[in-house]
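Worked example

This section walks through a single chain of length 436. The input is the sequence exactly as stored; nothing has been trimmed or padded.
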Amino acid sequence: MTGTPAPGAVRVLAHGIGAQHDLPLSPFYAFAGAFAALFVSFLALGLLWSDSRFTGERAGRPLPAAVQRAADARATRLTARVLGLAAALAVVLWLLLGPADPDRNPAPGAVYVLLWVGLVPASLLLGPVWRPLNPLRTVHLLACRVLHRDPGAGRPLPVRLGMRPAAAGLLAFTWLELVAPDPASPTALLVFLGGYAAVHLAGAAVYGAHWFDHADAFEVYSGLLGRLSPFGRRPADGRLVVRSPFNGLDATPRLPGLVATVCVMLGSTAYDGFSDAPRWITTVQTSELGRTTTATLGLLGAVVLVATLYGLCAGATRLVCGTPPRPLTAFAHSLVPIALGYLVAHYFTLFATEGPRTLALAFGADRPAPPEPPLGPGGVATLQVVAIVTGHVLGVIAAHDRSVRLMPPRRAVIGQLPLLVLMIAYTVGGLALLIA
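Given that input, the structure is written out below as tokens.
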């Protein structure tokens, strides 16, 4: 939240921003600046960017050989596995043996703040960090060694499956965080984490370790955000490289379920934004359907709205420009920086305040007070607006480069008009959740 956390860890951990009236920023200047940034970017790209400049997986300058050896060393991989497994065991022990009071138990903060929110800066800096840390991969690897089985052995993953299990996992996790009656209770977290582990270990037992690549929600979440990292690995030769984040984004695999996954990321964050609005709180509390059912419908409605707008945009692009190859997935990568902008806007202050508090609890402090937010209300408001607008501008650039590659030259610019309208709609909606 943008201000001092409300009493009880449930509300603090379930929402990343404060009420809209906490943000002292003129709506006129925010909307005008956002519209100007998007429109000027669109015009400049149309005039000056006529050929595709991103090379995706082929791009990047190799890092020094010593860095490559250190990153790929067995000791490095083993250390990451031990850290990930130890952290997971600590969370389980805190949930089983720790205080029932979430204000004194570090487990909720470890899951909702250090994992969910912390993966954002970690992935942006280092790439898909959850893959080497994933404790479920380690458990699967240990089980395979006990059974003398190759961890990669298993049935081929159905092509149509794609990222759909990851999208479902992300939706389930965000439901727990934002809708469940008591998301910080040990029982709720144990049930979710136990069920999540059972599903993915069963998937890995059938399909091998490759199951985690596209089905594990946190690996896919970290991997998509890691596309914007300056560091990456070239698939052709396995070299670690420094690259433009746009090249990493351009290399995003066009798998089934990619659109669904990104729409869950966007829609759930949007729901987080308006779920604290007084009108929505009143609606939830007075609904004849009950709080949980109404909130569930609200979360699903936000995801469906985001997906519907994107689907209409893809359809309009097809009508304007003929039939570009799979328009629904061809431009899905441009939504990733938009999702990143929303995540930064909504969760920056939560991470800066509740992150240190969670670490203090983990090291034995009793009811530590969170530190003061690093920015005042004006600074938070400015950061949030800049994050949202920057994410959309980056999305416009990524979509433009893909357009000039896929579409005939005469239609490349006009074919982006539906995308521009979509970006403006998402921007207006995101800013409205903050300051309207």
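What to look for: The beta strands are 61-62, 231-233, 240-242.
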